[in-house]
């Protein structure tokens, strides 16, 4: 059990957690004028992996079994991915005439450290907003079998909804990246959880499975926006000098949301509150987050440096 725990920690920390954190921090520090587009392109790694890797893994398991599949994956990481990263990163990443660049400041013209951000009112105010997308998306997928049972649908009938979710996630990521560059990330903040609120609310009264497709497609808009928005907004709010440390704190919060969601909603299901009914309350929560984001954006706008 100890070995399994170490392995799972390594996969989570060094894989999904650390890789995405490094990528988003690098894009935030490197790009400025087109930071939103850079972040949105980088975010394609997750949906691309979700589309391609499961099919390859299923084929591998069918050919060599699940244990040998793990060995193949490990070999690819060691013999292909690691050398490729070493080659790509062998040269300095600073552009010509950019070595002496000045780190861009954030709120109040400051370079914020993690302890400063944690002690300021803004990060605690953003906490419920950071938690919401991961929490809701996770519980929707986690309780899909329960939703099928309550609605009288089959999992096969519900499957196209995940394709709709993936497509809108990708489109929204590109759209949000462009909009963040064009209008500013702060203006997008009040809109972030609005699509998710609409989508999750639609699950409650949906009778036909087409309602499930529409709901997941709309929820996917927020998922796509979130990846691009946070990648652009944190450098604007806190500067770029200590961006990695601050992003690590925010990433931890978002990971926690995905962990606690199924437990909380599962307890409510056991208490007799089915998940479609819970979706109505989750939609109301998103409406509150829209109001909160509007207040936050209005309050911090005067503190942003002019660029």
From TrEMBL:
TM spans (from-to): 6-24, 44-64, 70-89, 121-142, 162-181, 188-206, 212-237, 249-269, 275-298
GO molecular function: transmembrane transporter activity
InterPro entries for this protein: MFS, MFS_dom, MFS_trans_sf, Proton-linked_MCT
Keyword annotations of the record: Membrane, Transmembrane, Transmembrane helix
Domain Major facilitator superfamily (MFS) profile: 1-301
Coiled coil (UniProt feature): none
Transmembrane helix listed as a keyword: yes
Protein name per UniProt: MFS transporter
Species in which this protein is naturally found: Paracoccus liaowanqingii
